[in-house]
């Protein structure tokens, strides 16, 4: 089942169950996917849809941090719920050990030896994880390995 089909089915269920928060997030995701499809002028592939989901998740995580810094607990809870809903549509996340193994493999592939090679490693490793790991976590691990 494609992501759009799954979203449509879940949207119907949320409507029937009168889950306003879940319905709102699903509609937002569908709208983002539709806007991206219109922008590209073609239906989205699974990778393109995943990129949109990843972007939406990152926006919410950034908002969560800003609301925490501002002391807005009411908004923190709301955004945390939205993050949980968006994450339910993401592929299963890699464990930290799996990410480290992938990074070690990539470091040896590109021949990275110093901090100057961080960009090369990141460029090679990001397509391999495709939304299955957070970019900031990957960056932190790569930096620690190349220090």
From TrEMBL:
<protein>
    <recommendedName>
        <fullName>Aspartyl-tRNA amidotransferase subunit B</fullName>
    </recommendedName>
</protein>
<dbReference type="InterPro" id="IPR019004">
    <property type="entry name" value="YqeY/Aim41"/>
</dbReference>
<dbReference type="InterPro" id="IPR003789">
    <property type="entry name" value="Asn/Gln_tRNA_amidoTrase-B-like"/>
</dbReference>
<dbReference type="Pfam" id="PF09424">
    <property type="entry name" value="YqeY"/>
</dbReference>
<dbReference type="GO" id="GO:0016884">
    <property type="term" value="F:carbon-nitrogen ligase activity, with glutamine as amido-N-donor"/>
</dbReference>
<dbReference type="InterPro" id="IPR023168">
    <property type="entry name" value="GatB_Yqey_C_2"/>
</dbReference>
<dbReference type="InterPro" id="IPR042184">
    <property type="entry name" value="YqeY/Aim41_N"/>
</dbReference>
């Amino acid at each position: 089942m494609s992501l759009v089909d799954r979203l449509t089915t879940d949207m119907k269920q949320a409507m029937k169950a009168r889950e306003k928060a879940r319905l709102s997030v699903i509609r937002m995701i569908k709208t983002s996917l539709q806007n991206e499809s219109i922008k590209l002028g073609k239906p989205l592939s699974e990778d393109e849809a995943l990129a949109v989901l990843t972007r939406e998740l990152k926006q919410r995580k950034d908002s969560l941090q800003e609301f925490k810094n501002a002391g807005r607990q009411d908004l923190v809870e709301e955004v945390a719920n939205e993050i949980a809903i968006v994450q339910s549509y993401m592929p299963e996340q890699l464990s930290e050990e799996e990410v480290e193994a992938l990074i070690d493999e990539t470091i040896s592939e590109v021949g990275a030896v110093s901090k100057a090679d961080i960009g090369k490693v990141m460029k090679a490793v990001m397509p391999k994880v495709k939304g299955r790991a957070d970019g900031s976590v990957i960056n932190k691990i790569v930096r620690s390995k190349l220090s």
